[in-house]
User: Fold TetR family transcriptional regulator from Actinophytocola xanthii.
Amino acid sequence: MSEPDPGPGLREPRQDRSRATRRRLLEAAIECLAEVGWSGSTVAVVAERAGVSRGAAQHHFPTREDLVLSAVEFVSQERLAQLREHAADLPTGPERIRAVIDMVEHMYTGPLFRAAIHLWVAASSDERLRERVLVLEAQVGRETHRVALELLGVDESVAGVREAVQATLDLARGLALANLLSDDSRRRERVLRQWASMLDAALAEASKA
Amino acid sequence: MSEPDPGPGLREPRQDRSRATRRRLLEAAIECLAEVGWSGSTVAVVAERAGVSRGAAQHHFPTREDLVLSAVEFVSQERLAQLREHAADLPTGPERIRAVIDMVEHMYTGPLFRAAIHLWVAASSDERLRERVLVLEAQVGRETHRVALELLGVDESVAGVREAVQATLDLARGLALANLLSDDSRRRERVLRQWASMLDAALAEASKA
Assistant:
């Protein structure tokens, strides 16, 4: 005899628990990677940090590659969704540009991007990992670019807009790297204020042309 | 009896040989770090690449930290000196900005900066290395900033100039990171063209104010 169906009311909590476990592992993987880097972020170490048994962790993510790539993808999607939610609250005019730059800065100087730097560097000397990271990077990069356009409220079919937005994201990446070893926030604040005024002028110029 | 003085004519070649050995080790360390990263760049591996015995390498550089930090310092100084030499040949006007941005891009997307990224990431999870890298980074960072000002021929006492030049170097760092896993040169070319026109406008604006 097969086991009786527990019914949707009982099946649901088990799926919820599995989802919650998965989520704890993904978040712990980002924290771990940001703090101790690639070599210290094994599935066992991340499982312990997440308060999940090693067996359960390996059931969700058989290898460190699977865990870390899923973590960067999941947390990136979550951050981008949060940014999108705030789009409606943004001020208009030059203040909007500064607000968007602050949002981008916040995303790039936090643990997610720190984790991503560790992943990239590990992938640069590991051919198999490199292939997988390139696919993920292209996908997250495209979506980040789209979100930045939405937040700024600009049209990238206008000449120069696409490149100015890309330069903003490249600059944020460079500032994240400068923040890796010490707190660079005071210098960064001045650089970003100047950048906001340059971006404002460039977008105004582009829309006139 | 003490050994007879070999005279300057004979002592010189030995000093030259030692200097040449040191230089080969420093250059090999940058190549090695850029290609295989921190964990693969031991003194023994670098010595082999440089064609120097392990004993001789360890005489010059007792530890990997000594070797890699000396290499990043030496090669950075050399590149900055080369940039300075070209300052006199630079065109004037907006073409000068584009020429300087190309020089900065060339410095940041080559093996030296790739090696520096590996060093930074290794230092981010090694407290002792971190302290030494921060001292080196501050020194090289200051000199790079000074060379960029000289090449652009701008005065950083004018409001906004300092930050615009810093943003240029931060952008170059971000572009270097984007180039770590795949050839990003086509996209980078478009971003830098846009950046040159934004920097040109910002520097012109600053000098008017």
Remarks:
- The radius of gyration of chain A is 20 Å.
